[in-house]
Amino acid sequence: MHYNYKISEWEDLSRDELHACLRLRIDVFVVEQDCPYSELDGKDHNSLHIFSEHVDIQKGNPVEAYLRIVKPGFSYKEPSIGRVAISKSARGKGLGKELMIKALKECANRWPNSGVRISAQEYLIKFYEDLGFKVCSATYLEDAIPHVQMFKE
Q1: Which of 83, 88, 99 is nearest to 21 (CA)?
Q2: Phi, psi (5° rounding) for residue 5?
């Protein structure tokens, strides 16, 4: 399955786009993962937002695929991909990989030769390794969920 994706700076997100992106993030990271931690961490203003465009977000629907790229210097010295979320109904169709490939290309275009660093949930290590990331830290807890830091040259 291929979706059309939009890449947007914070200030260019429409009200409906912002709502649709945050709704998916909260549905996945707060409700589904039962993680009652603040989803809004202050980094969205310094990020690129990549999301699927095929649903009618004007009716309050969440997007089906989303991630953000935190610009260099805000999470790490390199760009950082995070908040990767696919709606329950769209999982298993390759959207996560498709979205990550789009994000990696965007990072390479905007910040060539900088590499990309992520904080990955431990159960997703293989998924990210298949995209060329390597584990570069011991396991740590982030919002009570085991994570590892990973880096891709």
Answers
A1: 83
A2: -120, 150
Length of the chain: 153
Q: Is 145 inside any structural domain?
A: no
- Answer whether 69's CB lies under 8 Å from 105's CB: no
Number of folded domains that form the chain: 1
What are the tens digits of pLDDT across the range 44-99? 999 999 999 877 777 788 899 999 999 999 999 999 999 999 999 889 999 999 99
Name the residue with tokens 């769209």.
Answer: 90
**CATH code, 93:** 3.40.630.30
21: enclosing H helix or E strand: helix 15-25
Q: Is 52 domain-assigned?
A: yes
Asked whether residue 150 is domain-assigned, the answer is no
